[in-house]
Specification:
Layout lengths: L1 H13 L5 E5 L2 E9 L4 E8 L3 E11 L3 E9 L8 E10 L5 E4 L1 E3 L3 E13 L2 E11 L10 E11 L3 H30 L1
Parallel strand pairs: 1-3, 2-4
Antiparallel strand pairs: 3-11, 4-10, 5-9, 5-11, 6-7, 6-10, 8-9
Length: about 190
């Protein structure tokens, strides 16, 4: 589990060059984009005012995919920017969470992780971020900031699974032939 958290952090760091910077109010919505697999996404969200954060970030899935994602509470210097950070994903207009982010076993609640390989079907989703912006905004810094990083993988087509099964079957058949030949040679 620690390796999973470290790989998510490494992925977030590698994607940091592709991050956009988005300023949101305490209660705000933002469209993250449409995804169909094979993407690396990253964005930094800042909050100017201190108080309760209630963000609704919407996105669309246009092709079934598996995803891993992390939400990292950015601490600027010695300032702790967000406390009680939570994140959940909701499908369509459902009030029941589709997927929940869990605290990292290594970094705790400063890094929330969506289990890698979480399946998303085609549809509309909302990522809800909640917490308390606790920074002091000194020196022009925001009162809160967090980063979202995600990696998406397309779901293989049924033909891919069929080819995999045929390939495994052929390998198994060949190994069985090889073992029979080895057994007959030792009897002679």
């Amino acid at each position: 589990m620690k390796l999973h958290a470290l790989s998510m952090i490494a992925g977030l760091m590698m994607a940091s060059n592709t991050y956009a910077l988005t300023n949101l109010d305490l209660i705000d919505t933002h469209y993250l984009g449409a995804f169909d697999g094979g993407e690396l996404y990253g964005e930094v969200f800042t909050v100017a005012d201190a108080g309760t954060i209630n963000h609704a970030l919407t996105f669309n899935i246009t092709g079934a995919l598996y995803a891993g994602s992390g939400i990292f509470d950015l601490s600027l210097g010695n300032i702790t920017n967000i406390s009680s950070l939570t994140a959940q994903i909701f499908a369509g207009n459902s009030s029941t969470a589709y997927a929940s982010f869990n605290p990292s076993p290594v970094l705790g609640s400063d890094l929330l992780i969506l289990p890698f390989g979480t399946y998303f079907g085609v549809g509309n989703y909302t990522l809800k971020i909640n917490g308390q912006a606790t920074g002091n905004g000194a020196f022009g810094l925001p009162n809160g900031a967090y980063t979202i990083g995600a990696v998406t993988l397309p779901v293989p087509e049924p033909e891919t699974y069929a080819m995999l099964l045929v390939g495994l079957g052929l390998v198994g058949y060949r190994l069985r032939q090889k073992n029979r030949a080895a057994g007959q040679t030792s009897l002679n």
